C-alpha cells in the first residue's frame, strides 16, 4: 500500500511540471491527500494540533503586533519618510525606490512573511508597481533574528554564535540577491519623486481598528498554511516517502552515502522551515555542514512560507516563479557566505559550539544589529552623495 502511494505521489509531482496536465495532477494529489487523511486520522489530527499550537502560541504572538504596528506606521506616512531618507541607497544597490529600503529594514527584524505583507500594503495603496513589488521581494523576504539567533542558534544548535553566523549570512545573502536581481529586472523605479517631503499624515481615528482587522486576516492566512503543511509532512512521513528515496539513491551507487543523507535531509526540510531546521539540527551531519544546510533552508524559507507569500499577494497576480527562483538564489548566496565564514577559520567548530553570549538578551542584540545597519546605510549614502 505504501509503495502505491509513493509511486503515485512521485508520478503526479512530475506531471505537475507539465503545464498542460497541471490542473489534473493537482486534483489527483489532493485526492491522494484526502485518502491518506482517512487512512491516518489520528496522525493527521495530532499534526493539525501541532500546527495550531505553532501558529497560536508562536507565530501569532510574534507577528500580529508587528503587522498592526506596520499598518499604523503606513497610515502615518512613515514608509514614505524612510523611503525618502534611504532612496539613494535603494536606487544605487537594488534599483528600487526608497520603499525597497523600508521593506528590507522591517523584514529583517520581523521575519517571514512580513516582507510580503508590507509589499501587499504598498501595492494596495498604489505606492509601488507590480514589477517593483517583485523586485523588492528578491531581497526583502527574509527571516528575523528572533528565529535565526534565538530559535535555531540558541535553541536547536545550543550556540548563539552559530545563530549570529546564520543571521549575518542570511542578510548578506539577501543584499547580494537584490543586487543580482538587477540583471533580470530592467527599468527604473521612482515611486518617490524629488518633490516628496518628510512629514506625517493626520492621525485617523480608526487607525488601530483598521490595523487589527487587516492583520488578523493575514494571520489567518498564515495559520491555514502552517496547519495544512504540518498535516502534509506527517502524511508523507507515514508512507515512508523519504526512506524510499534514500533506498533508491543508495541503490544507484553513484552518490556517497553521506551525500545521499544530506540530500534527503535537505529535501525533507524544504517543506516547512521550522520543522526543517529541527530535522537538520538533530541529524548526524557534521556541525559545519549543518550550518551550510541551515543557511540555504532559512533563505529559501520552505514551501509553507512560499505558500503564505502566494496567499498574501494572490490578488495582485505577481510572478511567483520569479519569486521562487530568487528564493533559491538567496539560499545559494547565503550558503556560500556561510561556507566562506567557516572556510577562512574566523570561527572554529569548537568556538561556535561552546560560545556563550555576553550578558544581555536577544532584544539588545537586535538593537545593536539595527544600529550597525543604520550606520552602514548612512555611510553608503554619504559615499554615494559625495561621488555625485
From TrEMBL:
<protein>
    <submittedName>
        <fullName>Sporulation integral membrane protein YlbJ</fullName>
    </submittedName>
</protein>
<feature type="transmembrane region" description="Helical">
    <location>
        <begin position="136"/>
        <end position="157"/>
    </location>
</feature>
<feature type="transmembrane region" description="Helical">
    <location>
        <begin position="52"/>
        <end position="73"/>
    </location>
</feature>
<keyword id="KW-0472">Membrane</keyword>
<feature type="transmembrane region" description="Helical">
    <location>
        <begin position="291"/>
        <end position="312"/>
    </location>
</feature>
<feature type="transmembrane region" description="Helical">
    <location>
        <begin position="324"/>
        <end position="342"/>
    </location>
</feature>
<keyword id="KW-1133">Transmembrane helix</keyword>
<feature type="transmembrane region" description="Helical">
    <location>
        <begin position="164"/>
        <end position="185"/>
    </location>
</feature>
<feature type="transmembrane region" description="Helical">
    <location>
        <begin position="248"/>
        <end position="271"/>
    </location>
</feature>
<feature type="transmembrane region" description="Helical">
    <location>
        <begin position="21"/>
        <end position="40"/>
    </location>
</feature>
<feature type="transmembrane region" description="Helical">
    <location>
        <begin position="93"/>
        <end position="116"/>
    </location>
</feature>
<feature type="transmembrane region" description="Helical">
    <location>
        <begin position="215"/>
        <end position="236"/>
    </location>
</feature>
<feature type="transmembrane region" description="Helical">
    <location>
        <begin position="362"/>
        <end position="384"/>
    </location>
</feature>
<keyword id="KW-0812">Transmembrane</keyword>
